[in-house]
Amino acid sequence: MKTSSIVVLLSFGLSVSAVHRHAKRQLAQVFSSCTEPNTVAITFDDGPYIYAREISDTLTQQDAKGTFFYNGNNWDCIYDQNIMDDVRYVYNQGHQVASHTWRHADLATLSWDEVHDEMWRVEQALQRIVGVVPAFMRPPYGSYNDNVRAASSVRGQSLVIWDFDAGDGDKKPPADTIRAYTDTINQHPSTILPLNHETSESTAHQVIPKVVKELREAGYRMVTVAECLGMDPYQSVGEPGYPDESWHC
Q1: In a domain, 158, yes or no
Q2: Is 45 a catalytic residue?
Q3: Quick one: average pLDDT of 64-90?
Q4: Cα–chain center distance at 202
Q5: Quick check: 15 pLDDT over 80?
Q6: Residue 233 in contact with residue 224, Cβ under 8 Å?
Q7: What is the pTM for the complete model shown?
Q8: For residue 98, is it within any domain?
Q9: What is the rounded end-to-end Cα distance, in angstroms, of the chain?
C-alpha cells in the first residue's frame, strides 16, 4: 500500500492494524433481514429531525425499541443544540443510534477517501454527542458496492438495508403505508426489518402509532437492529464530549 494511502486512513482515526486489513480488501457484512425469530426492527432514516422525540415516545410507550440511522448534515445539522438534545433523548430512551453517513450522498459513486470521510464525520459526531461509535451503517438509497463494503469493514461497521419499505420516502399516502404494514403483519413472517423516515410528519403522527399497536397485537417483539441480529450496537461506549468551536457542520 502506498504511504500516502496509509496517511489518509490514519487521518480518519484508523489504527495501523486497520490499515493493514484494508490491504486485504475484507468486505463488511450486509444485512437485509433480521435473524432472531419473532422480531421486528423498525428503522428510521434521514434524521435527526423535529419528530425524533414523538417517534421515540410512541415506541417507548408500547415497550418497543427503534433504530435511528443519522445523517450529520442533511435535513438539519446534527450539531445544532436542539438536535443534539434530541439525539441524546432518543439514545437515553434505549433506542439504537447508527450511521446514515454525513450528507446522504450515494456512496457507490464516491472514492475510497470520500466514503471514509462520509462515515468518519458521523462516527465523530455520535461519539461526541452520546459517547458511542456505531457498529452499523445504512448506505443512503441502499446504494453500495465493494468499495463501500471494504471501507465499512475497515471502520468496523456492518451495512443494514431492509426487507420492507414503508414508502414514506416516496411520499406514499399514510393510509397506503398502514395498509402495506397490515398486509405484511397478516402474513406473519418470522421477522420484519422496515424502512421508515424520521423526517415524515405522517410517519410520526399516523403510521407509527398505528402499526406499532398492530405489531404488538400480532405478538412481535419490537427491538433494535442489533438485537434482531444478536449483535452489539456499538463498537465502543464511553462518555460524551463537551461542545467547542469544532462542533459544526
Answers
A1: yes
A2: yes
A3: 97
A4: 20
A5: no
A6: yes
A7: 0.90
A8: yes
A9: 32
Comparing C-alpha atoms, which of 37, 35, 89 is closest to residue 66? 89
Give CA separation, 115 vs 38, 150, 153, 167, in Å.
34, 10, 12, 26
Contacts of 183 (CB under 8 A, 6+ apart): none
Q: Among residues 45, 46, 76, 86, which one is catalytic?
A: 45
What gap in Å lies between CA 177 and CA 208, rounded to an integer? 10
Q: In terms of residue numbers, what domain contains 98?
A: 27-234
Do the domain assignments include residue 19?
A: no
pLDDT by residue (tens digit) across 19-56?
A: 544 446 899 999 999 999 999 999 999 999 999 999 99
Within a domain: 8: no
Q: Cell 405522517 identifies what position?
A: 202
Evaluate whether 37 touches 67 at the Cβ level (below 8 Å).
Answer: no
Whether 125 shows a pLDDT value over 80: the answer reads yes
CATH of the domain at 53: 3.20.20.370
Q: Give me the catalytic one of 95, 100, 104, 197.
A: 197
Q: How far apart are CA 15 and CA 11, in angstroms?
A: 10
Cβ-based burial of 170 (10 A; exposed 0-12, middle 13-18, buried ≥19): exposed
136 three-state secondary structure: strand
Domain count, the chain: 1
List the grid coordinates of 41: 426492527
